[in-house]
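Minutes, project check-in
Item: structure for the 580-residue chain
Input as provided by the requester:
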Amino acid sequence: MSRPSDYVDAGAPNRAPDEINQPQLGFVGWLRWFWRQLTSMRTALFLLLLLAIAAVPGSLVPQRSSDPNGVTQYFIENPDLAPFLDKLQAFDVYSSAWFSSIYLLLFISLIGCVIPRTKHHFQALRALPPKTPVRLSRLAGFTARTVPAEQADAASAIDAARTQLKSAGYRTALYSGTVGGKREFSVSAERGYLRETGNLVFHSALVGVLVTVGFGGGFGFAGQRVIVEGQTFVNTLLAFDSFNPGRFFDPDSLDPYKLTLDSFDVVYETENQDAFGQPTDFAANVTVEHVGQEPTQEQVKVNAPLRTGGTDVYLLGNGYAPTITVKNPDGDVVFTDSIPFLPQDAQLTSLGVVKVPDGLSEQIGMIGFFYPTQANSEPPYYSSYPDLEFPMLTLDVYSGDLGINDGTPTSVYTLDTDSMTKLTRGHTGVASIELMPGQSAELPNGLGTVSFDNVDPNAPAAGEEVTDYSHSVHRFASFDIHRDPTQFWVALFAVLVLLGLATSLFVPRRRIWVKAIEESDGSLRLEYAGLARGEDPSLDEAVATIAEKHEATMAEAPAKPATSPSATPTARTDEPSDLG
C-alpha cells in the first residue's frame, strides 16, 4: 500500500525536525509549572532533607547566637579560614540568607501541598462509597458462598452485612440492580480515611513547627552568664556576658529577677577504676528572688533547667574560680576577684587570665594555670583528679599596655602579650609564681604582691597547716538563659507530627464489597472482595474474616421476607467514620 505524499516517517533521514510544532507555555504556563513542581510531595521531601543538611555547618563551627566567645576564639585560631566562612554566613547559619531561603521554600511547598489535599479529603469524606464493581472476582481476597433459598433472602443478607461492616467502623452504602437477568443486592463499604487525615495532620503540624519556630526566634532571646559561687545575677540586659535578642524582642519585657549561685556540687566516680574521676552529677544550688516575693531555693541540673521569670535557665558548664588578690608595695589592695579559669582537660586543669589595670606603677597581666590536684613535683605540672585534693596555681607575669585604655572591648579570657614585657620564665631567669590556697608571693620588679586566697570560712589561721582543701576555691557555673514564647506550641506541633506520621503509616485504607446474587434455582450466591489503597498485606485475611462472620450471622438469623431496595444508592443514616 502506498503512503500519502505528505507522510513523514519518524525514522527517515530527510525528516525535518522543525516541522513539529510544540505549544509555547508562556509566562503564566511557566508559573503554573513552577508552582506544581514546588508544591509536589517530592519537592517538599527534598527541601526537608536539604534543610537538615544546611543545618550541619551550625554544629561544626560556633554560632554567634549561642557561643559568641567561641566565634572570637575561632577567628584567633583560624585567621585565614574564619573570614572566608564569615562571608558564607557560617557563623550565623540559622539566620543566613541561604538557610532562610530553604526554610521559606519548604514553608510555601508544604502549604501549597496541604491546602489542595485538605479540600480533596473533605470532599471524599462527604462522598458515598463507590458503586460495587461488576466482577468482584478480579479483586483481592475474593471469596464466594452459596446459601440455600430457605436460609435467607438477598435483601436481609445485605442488611446483615451492612450492620456487620458498620460495627467494624466502615462507612456503607447500599446498591441494587439487575445484571444478566439476575437481581443483585450489594453493600459498598470503606474505611481508613484516618490515614489521609493523619497525613494532613503531619504536614500541617510541620507548617506549624516552622511558623512557631520563626515567631519564637523573633520574639525570644538567648543570653549567657558565668556566675561564681556567692555572686548574684539580675535579669537585665547589662548583666549578661553575651546577649542575642530576636528581631522583634522588646527589652521592657524582661522580668528583673535575681539569681544567686549559693553552691555548686559535683559528685565524682571513685569506685569504678575504669571511670575514676569522671563526674556523675552536677547540681547548681541557687536562690531566686522576684520583686515583691519571698526568695525561693531552686536547683539547676544538666537536662533539668530552671523555669522562672518567663525564661529557662540551663546549666552549660562549670569550673574553678581562684580568688586572687594583688597589693601594691605599700600593702594596699589594688585588685581582688574570683577569676573563672576555663577547663582544659577532663581533670580540670584550667587556664585563666588576670588583668590589673590600675594601682601599680604599670599595668600587669598574668596568665595562670590552676591544678585541682597537682601531681608532679616539678614543671610541667598536671592535675591527676578534678576535685580539690592538692590545688596549685601558677602565674606568669607580663607588664605593659593591656590594650583597654582606648575603649576597645577585649575578652577577659585572653591576654595579648605582643606589646607587653615578660617578667617570668624564659629568658627572664625568674621562675613562675607558684601558690597554694592561703599563700602569697612577691611580684617581679618590686611591683607588689599577689596572693591566692583560701575562701573556706573554716580555713586555719595564717601559718597553720592546711589539711582540707575541699572548699578552698570557689566554683563557677555557666548558664544559658533562654526565652521562647512559642515553646508550648512547638512542643504541641511536634507531638502532632509524631501522631500524624504514626497514623498515616499504620492505619490501612481499604474498601470491602459484599454482593448477594439471586440464582435461578432460588439459592443465594454471596461474594466478598476488597481493595486497598497502597500496600495492605492483611486485606485477604480481613475479607475472609468478614465472610466467615457474615456466613455465621446468616446461619443464626431467621429468614426474612424479601424486600426490594431501590436501584439507586440509599441515603446514609450513619455519620462518616474514620475508625481503623
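Outcome recorded: Residues 562-580 have pLDDT under 50 and may be disordered.
No further action items on this chain.
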